[in-house]
Amino acid sequence: MTKRLALNLSINSFDPDDYPQPAVALRLEVADNHVEQPLHRHRKGQLILAMHGGVTCEVSQAMWMVPPHHAVWIPSGMLHSNRATDNAQIYFLFIEPDVIEMPEQCCTLAMNPLVCAMIEYLAQQDPDYDLESATGRLVMVLLEQLPSKPIAQLHLPISSHAKIGYIAARLIADPSDRTTLADWASQLAMSERTLARLIHQETGLTFGRWRQQLHLIIALRQLSNGLSVQHVAGNLGYDSVTAFITMFKKALGQSPTQYFAALQK
């Protein structure tokens, strides 16, 4: 049976740790992105796959904004919370610890159509499946595929520092905001040099590189949802489409068209 639950009810309605199977999957369709799943953890590791729309996952010191055809990997026992975009279609794949070798740290993985299809199929099956059944055999194939998925640099380092959280929230709400570092510093009653040092200390990036990373992740989400390159460039406040494509290609090594074509292979 397919599990279609509101994001804020999913953990209460479905506990993956109740099942000893090596992997179980859950499908969620979310109509309202003002719903946020509170901090929680599982014995099983969790792969959060966005098939339509996107999902933001927060863990300690980082925010993972997952565009379609990507998944964020959350190791066993790690505290995290999730928030979805409007009309998102999300799949959770829960994996028993140590059944396969997965990264020890949270990361984003690029998914191909085969793996996405297997996770989608598994989410439609009874989670209490027999290991010798067709579902059990498919799970073994799926688990063989996952460790080879490439890691994508699609996370935004954040911190618990209130001032950085304030800037992050403002930029996520309006990614076209071009407020300068000096102006942010003025709003926060700090010197520009002190704020620059704080951002680098807390995120490992300069302010400019940090904001660019946010733009990149939001661009991937919007492009995946069918918006044109021109529209996305405007949404992010770029003066020209060429400037946006240059940023995208510098960050990911390919133009938006080339990047999304490669995901379908």
TrEMBL record:
This is AraC family transcriptional regulator. PROSITE patterns: HTH_ARAC_FAMILY_2. PANTHER family: HTH-TYPE TRANSCRIPTIONAL REGULATOR NIMR (PTHR11019). It comes from the Bacteria. The keyword Repressor applies. It comes from Acinetobacter larvae. Residues 165-262 form the HTH araC/xylS-type domain. Transmembrane segments: none annotated. Keywords: DNA-binding, Repressor, Transcription, Transcription regulation.
